[in-house]
Amino acid sequence: MKIGIDLRPLQNGHKYRGIGEVTKQVTNRILALAAAEQGHVFVFYENDEDDPKELLDIPESLEYSVVKVGPMPENVVERKGHKIKRLAGELYGDPIPNTKQCDVFLQFDFAAGIPKDTRTVLIKHDLIPYLFWDRYFESAWEHFRNKAARTTLRTLFNNYRFMRVLRRSLHNADVIVSVSESTKRDIEKYFNVDPKKSKVALLGVDVTPAKTNDVTADLKAKLPTKPYLLFVGAGDARRRVEDAVYAYNNLKAAGHDIQLVLAGENFKSPEQIPNQSVRNAVMKSSYKQDIITIGYIDDKTKQQLFKGALAYVYPTKYEGFGIPVLESFLLGCPIIVYKNSSIPEVGGDHAVYVNDWQGIKREVERLLVQPQKEREAQIKAAREFAKGFTWDKTAQAIYQELKDSV
C-alpha cells in the first residue's frame, strides 16, 4: 500500500498549533507501521525554507518520493493598495497534482484540498469556524478604516469561502475521520455526511515531559507567588475566559488570597488582550494586581504551572477534542470545565463540570478546603484515565482506515 501524506501543515500556520501536532504525531507512527512497504509520497510546498521532513522520524529503510506544490501563499498579499489578510498556507481546496501513484492519500487539513484521482482519508478536527464564524475570522475582531460595514462584508466573504471549501472537501473525501464522537455527530448533522464514511479516531496526549530550555529569569519574575488558578490558551470568544475572571473577582471579594494566571500569546499584557470582553474584565477588575498575564510560555514552564496550580479553569463553549483536559490530568492538576461538545469524552468522571462562573467559584472554594489525601487520590485516578489516550492508538485507528480504503 502506497500512502500519500500532505505535510503542508508542518510548513504553514498550523505548524505550531493543533493540526500541525496531529500531523507530526500521526505521520511518524504511520510511517513506522508502513515501514515494510515502499513508494510512499510526501506533498509539501516547494519554496519553504524549512523541510517538513526534518520534523519527522522517517525510517532509514523507507523509500518515498516528494511532490512539491506551491509556492506557499504569503501571509499578506497586496491588492489595489490595501493589505488583505490571508490564512498562511491555505490553498482553499486547490487540487493536489501527481498523486495517481498513491493507493490512498492522507489529508490532515481540508483547506489544502482533496486529490481528485486518489482515494482520500480526511482528518477533521472540529467545526469551530462553522459554529463560531462571526468571531473566528480575524476581520470580525477589528474595524477596517473604522467602517463596520466593510468589516462585516469581509467577514461574510471569508465565511463563504471557508464554507465552500469545507463542503467540497467533505463531499470529495472517501473517508472522514473525526477526532471525537462529538465532531463526528456535528459533521453528520450540519453537513449531511453519510455515516458510513464517517469514522472516529480519538487523539492522544504526551505522557513524558517535553525537553525544553530552563525558565528564564525574566519569566521567573512573573510566576505566581500565591495559590493560583490557571488558564493557558487563546482568548477567543469560544473560550469564555472572562468567566474565569468573574469567578476570580468573587473569590477575592470573599477573602480568598489567590492569584489568576492567564498564559498564551493573547495574554502578553492586560492592554494587549485581543478579545474585548476579556480585556475589559481584566482591566476593570478590582484585583488586577493579582491577575498575571504571562504571555507565551514554553512547554517546561507550562508544565510547571500546571503542576503547581490549585486548578486549571477551562470555560470553553466548544472543543473538537480537548487536549488541555488530558494535559491537566497527566500533570496532576484538577480541571474545572464547562460540560459540552467533546469535553465529556476526554474528561470522563474525572473533570469537574460546571455551567457558569458561579459554578467555577463554588468548585474552587471546595478545592481550597479539600483534604490533601482526597485530592491526591482524585489526581491519581485522573492520571491513569488520561494515560489511555495515546498517539499510538490514534495512528493505529487512522492506519486501519487507510488500509480499509484501498
Outline the fold blueprint.
Blueprint: E1 3-6, H1 18-33, E2 40-45, E3 64-69, E4 76-79, E5 82-85, E6 104-107, E7 120-124, H2 128-131, H3 133-136, H4 148-172, E8 175-178, H5 181-191, E9 198-200, H6 217-220, E10 228-232, H7 241-253, E11 259-263, H8 276-283, E12 291-295, H9 299-308, E13 311-314, H10 323-330, E14 335-338, H11 343-347, E15 352-354, H12 357-368, H13 372-386, H14 391-405
Parallel strand pairs: 1-2, 1-6, 2-3, 6-7, 7-8, 8-9, 10-11, 10-13, 11-12, 13-14, 14-15
Antiparallel strand pairs: 4-5
Protein described:
This protein is an alpha/beta fold and 406 residues long. It has 2 domains: 3-204 and 391-405, Glycogen Phosphorylase B (Rossmann fold); 217-386, Glycogen Phosphorylase B (Rossmann fold). It is built from 14 helices and 15 strands. The protein has helices at residues 18-33, 128-131, 133-136, 148-172, 181-191, 217-220, 241-253, 276-283, 299-308, 323-330, 343-347, 357-368, 372-386, 391-405, and strands at residues 3-6, 40-45, 64-69, 76-79, 82-85, 104-107, 120-124, 175-178, 198-200, 228-232, 259-263, 291-295, 311-314, 335-338, 352-354. The protein has a 7-stranded parallel beta sheet, with helices on both faces. Strands 12-11-10-13-14-15 form a 6-stranded parallel beta sheet, sandwiched between helices. The protein has a two-stranded antiparallel sheet with strand order 4-5. Helix 8 links the parallel strand 11 (259-263) and strand 12. The termini are close together.
